[in-house]
């Protein structure tokens, strides 16, 4: 319809209702997300548990190695300084050193070293090994030697125990090299040369 007055027409404002669209997750998406999160959590727990297990095994192995190093050094020193030894039973070794006596007692997974003077205990040292260790005391001849063999049983069918440490020492080795109190250093040197020539 034309406007005869020439004035612009005013049209009534038109209001349109715009529906608000709300986005969300479906039940299937929630279930999938929760399942994925649970799997990740289980994997993380497994990794942490495995790391702790490896750490404990490494610490136990380090403790075992330190105990074997101490045992190796102490046993060699005692045997080399000894005047003689006695073995009353397969689990006991007695070494005579000067006026004292050193007694080694072998347990299932432990080795105890005890020093006695005039049948009185002076000190005691314990070498603790892990539950898989097997300890064996050796007495060898020609030449006479004493030894300790420590093995680890992997507890696997068909797999033999692994040798962790083998300690072999000659009784009285240091006494043979040290001069006697009644012997002068020159005489000791002469006897050593004679002994070397004889060999």
TrEMBL record:
Transmembrane among keywords: yes
Name of the protein this chain belongs to: Prepilin-type N-terminal cleavage/methylation domain-containing protein
PROSITE patterns, per database record: PROKAR_NTER_METHYL
Alphabetized InterPro entries for the sequence: N_methyl_site
Record flagged with keyword Transmembrane: yes
Annotated region (Disordered), positions in chain: 173-199
Spans through the membrane: 21-48
Source organism (scientific name): Rosistilla carotiformis
Keywords: Membrane, Transmembrane, Transmembrane helix
